[in-house]
């Protein structure tokens, strides 16, 4: 069966009343679960799998896919409203989304996030349809050296994530990297910095860091400012309407980042997080007014939101065409496929076109549902901000605690949450930026692994990073993207 | 000798880096590997040492707003410690008394402590929210939370 016939079959499946109904349920449940801190796409999918028993495989998988991108979408809401990113893919969303909400423009911020997600999601589904077969072969040619170089590229973001002192940003990043070395080393099984505690063997969970550094540290600031009347604006939701100027500002990042986000999403292991960070820094680099970033910039919010949704569709390329899950979430998706008796891989497209193309075709519909479901609901979501400050503080603490507890079922992690909340607050007091910390924490682990794997392959020869064409190119880009802003700083100083 | 704040902070970071390095040198080695588990930690430790020395010598580029953040009145420090203390009590009693009971108490006390005066609303929220969250997690999502003294 040719691709075109396959696509037609796919749309027939996806447009059936049953499929539309379940994709609607999927995106709705996904959005709700994604909004709760701690419950990201993995738990959302895991929760829904038992519900699909007895369903037609294609319909079941269409629903599960809906849960997946619905959850990514929902995660941005808590990032914007509460500065509490529940999943790593929405950390960068908080950088400009939360300042916007503080300025009384929460409605606008959520609307931008919804539209950017829609565009990112839809463009990448089109790309997925066109490129899935060809891209899968590129994705497997990405070996450890190329991954290492990709992580280095991600880390160059540190230079642009600093507000003021680059030294402090670097210190913050090194500290984040140090935290990730805690636990059992994956390659040798050696315990590092566990101090004999069994609770530290698995290392420190991402959520503990994200909710600690962002949500709990923000709680401390809220406690101090609880009587500050100048923050009254925070209670305003503001209009949802976007002006022509807003759309004009959004169009650039949306078109660039849907493509870039999709391509990064295709790479196994990279995914929505790296896509959103790279989107954020690349837009900041080329922006005419980079100083607006981090203070409620429309571009700064559009870029990561477009990219994380685009990457979500991108992640389906290796999953559907090779049967390789690129992330924890797609691994659970793979599990869902296997439970249904469907083996994703090169044969899926020809043997079960109604599933392969049906899932892809349903994503168009799912993305449209996400938009029409969420835009009218924004005023209700944003009501969160009308809650009196003392009550809001207690609720954010409780939600962060549940988020962490529901992942580890261990009170030790709750103490760690409190500890990292204190660290985050102290970092704020002394102007050490938190984003480089979390970026290094997310990338550090993968970076160390790919670095050591590469050197194991080359038997200790560092030249492997130069001789591998992909990694060489990525390292050159990283070097340039690190050096250019520094040159700018030096020039500015000379000018002064 | 320590004139600027950066110098004080840099000394603290220097000490942390040294401590980290001491532990990094104690990581046992593994014979059959090209890059051992201790390589990256050692690199990180030295990096932090170098960066903290840098910090000692650089001048601060902090804005007035950033400096103002550190002026916390003593009373407010007490508030922060109070909330921290409540959180610690929450963690200690979470698995003993159960999620619903402890969360209800926490929301009520913490909101009251921070100056929320609407008793009726406070009582209602601190009862309805934990109960509905508990039911949602345990019944719908099948994620168990500590039931504690509750019979179900």
From TrEMBL, chain B:
Ranges of residues in domain DUF1468: 9-146
Transmembrane region(s): 40-58, 79-107, 119-137
Annotated keywords: Membrane, Transmembrane, Transmembrane helix
InterPro entries found in the cross-reference section: DUF1468 (IPR009936)
Keyword Coiled coil: no
Entry keyword Membrane: yes
Protein name: Tripartite tricarboxylate transporter TctB family protein
Organism per entry: Oceanobacillus luteolus
